[in-house]
Amino acid sequence: MRAEATQRVALVFSLLDANGNGVLDAGDFDLMSDRVVAAASASSDGAKDAMRTAFRQYWTTLADELDTDGDQVISFDEYTACVLAPERFDATVTAFAEALAALGDPDGDGLIERPLFVDLMTAIGFRPANIHALFDAFGPTAEDRVAVPTWAEAIKDYYAPDKAGTTGDLLVPSATA
Ligand SMILES: [Ca+2]
Ligand SMILES: [Ca+2]
Ligand SMILES: [Ca+2]
User: Fold this and answer.
1) Origin, by domain of life (predicted)?
2) Which residues contact 13 (CB under 8 A, 6 or more apart)?
3) Ion ligand 2 residue ranges (Cβ < 5 Å)
4) Are strands 145-147 and 111-113 parallel, antiparallel or unpaired?
5) Which residues surround ligand 3, an ion (CB under 5 A)?
6) pLDDT, mean of residues 110-139
7) What is the pLDDT of residue 6?
8) How far is the CA of 109 from the centre of ligand 3 (A)?
9) Where does 40-166 have alpha helices with state H?
């Protein structure tokens, strides 16, 4: 595995472990889902439901693919196996990325404003300095907005287990330290 991929696998694992108990479990995804939906107050119920569904699907896919010992939680060692068959996660990650990006555009003009971007990314667990660095890297418009597909693609790249050298690497804390 490339060094960047190893670092990001560790970072994504710590991010997904929202309740901080050292393993991935269903509760992590409920917690993140609640936080993200709470941050998306201007979104429609349909968009919020799509986000909840995408979080549930994310957990179900991880549990199906990676819970090797069948104890209903995913240890870090089990999680690292995700890089061996990244294609198994494509559909889940795409659905997750699209649901999240849609929450960023409640008025449907195809653009995400910085304050909402910051709120949603904070809800997921990223740090403000990294969030702003990423938004800046997207090349915002004069009105400080970025296109929805730009963000959706970055989410997909970020959660794809085998990618490296993407704009999402700006979310690794050391990148802006
Ligand atoms: Ca956990
Ligand atoms: Ca397990
Ligand atoms: Ca918008």
Assistant:
1) Bacteria
2) 24, 76, 79
3) 67, 69, 71
4) antiparallel
5) 105, 107, 109, 111
6) 94
7) 75
8) 5
9) 45-66, 76-80, 90-103, 114-124, 128-137, 148-159
pLDDT surpasses 50 at 116: yes
Query: Among candidates 153, 145, 155, which has minimal Cα distance to 112?
Result: 145
CATH architecture type of domain 3-162: Orthogonal Bundle (1.10)
Domain chopping of the chain, boundaries: 3-162
Q: 159 C-alpha vs ligand 2 centroid, how far in Å? A: 20
CA of 75 to the centre of ligand 3 (A): 38
For the segment 60-98, what is each residue's pLDDT rounded down to a tens digit?
Answer: 999 999 999 999 999 999 999 888 888 888 999 999 999
Nearest ligand to the CA of 31 is: 1
147 beta partners: 111
Task: Say what the pLDDT of residue 9 is.
Answer: 85
Residue with tokens 């709120």: 119
CA distance linking residue 50 with residue 99, whole number of Å: 6
Ligand approaching nearest to the C-alpha of 144 = 3
Q: What's residue 68's pLDDT?
A: 97
- What six digits make up the tokens of 105? 């555009």
